Amino acid sequence: MSEDRVNHVPVLLREVLQVLVPQPGETLVDLTIGRGGHSEAIARILGPSGRVVGFDLDPENAAVARDRIRSTGCPVETHQTSFVDAPAILQTTGRQADMVLADLGFASNQMDDPARGFSFRSDGPLDMRLDPTAAVTAADLVNRASERELADLIYRYGEEPLSRKIAREIVAIRVDHPIENTLHLAEVVRKAYGPRARQSRMHPATKTFMALRIAVNDELGRLESLWDELERTIGAARTGGGWLGAGARLAFISFHSLEDRIIKHRMAALVKRGAAERITRKPIIATEEETDLNPRARSAKLRAIRIAPMP
Ligand SMILES: C[S@@+](CC[C@H](N)C(=O)[O-])C[C@H]1O[C@@H](n2cnc3c(N)ncnc32)[C@H](O)[C@@H]1O
Question: For the whole prediction, is pTM greater than 0.90?
Fold first, then answer.
C-alpha cells in the first residue's frame, strides 16, 4: 500500500459498512467523497451494476476518488461542488440513492499540505479554503474582520474562552504586520495566551485555527442548508418519488460538537415525526484499536437513520 493510501485510511469504515449495509447493484451518494476511502470499499460491494455519485469542494480529492472507484469496476461520477447543491443535481439524474454518506470536515491530505494553510505545525499561507476557488481566505478574515467579529467567531466556532484576548492581540499586531502565514498567527495566539500557553494540553492555536476553518468554509451554515434540502427530499422519498429511495440509509460522521449537535437534532426531528427510523441509538465512536492507528478518529461520531416509508 502506498504512503498516500495509508494517509487516507477512512474513519470508522467497518462501522459505516455495518450501518449502511451496502448491497450489490445499489447506489451510494457520497456527499464528501474526499480521496474515496469509504466509497472505494462500498463500491467493491456494489459492483458493476451499482453506482457511486460523489461530491467534494476539492477538485483534486474528487479526481483521486474517481480513479480509485473506477478501478473497482463500479460506475462512478463526481461533482466538484458543495454538498448543498447535491440534491438539486441528483434530482435531475432520475436515479434513486439507496445510501447517503457524509464524512464531514477536511481530509488528512488537506491538513498535511502546508500550502493549504490549515495547520499551525508548519508554515504556509493562511488560506484554509476547501474549495481553492472560494473568494475568502482565513488571511482575509484575520486581517479585515473587526475585533468584535473576530472575537465572536473564535468563541462561537472554536469555543475558545480566550477569544477576546486573542482578537485584541490579532488587531494590535495586524496594524503594522498583516498576518498572512500560519506560523505567524500561531505565534500571535500564543502571545495572547501568555503563561497559560505552558499549562494548555493542546497547542494554544488549536481552537482559533478550528474556528477560522469553520468560518472560511461556512461549515455549519452549509450543514444546516444540506439538512433543509434533505428534509424537502425526504418528503418525496417516502412516497417513492425524488432521488432518495424509501428505506434509504443516511450516515453522517462529524468531528466536533457543533456539527454533531446539528446532525443529532435534525435526525431526532425526522424520527419524531415518523419520517425516519434510527439505525444508531447513540453515536458510534472509534475503537481504541482505531484511535491508536489514527488519532483523528478520536473525535469522530457516526449517526445513522433510515427513511421510513409512508404507512
Ligand atoms: C473527511 S474528508 C472525507 C474523506 C472520505 N470519506 C474518504 O474516505 O476519503 C472530508 C471531505 O469533505 C470535503 N468537504 C467538506 N465540506 C464540504 C462541502 N460543504 N461540500 C462538499 N465537500 C465538502 C472536503 O474537501 C474533504 O475532501
Answer: yes
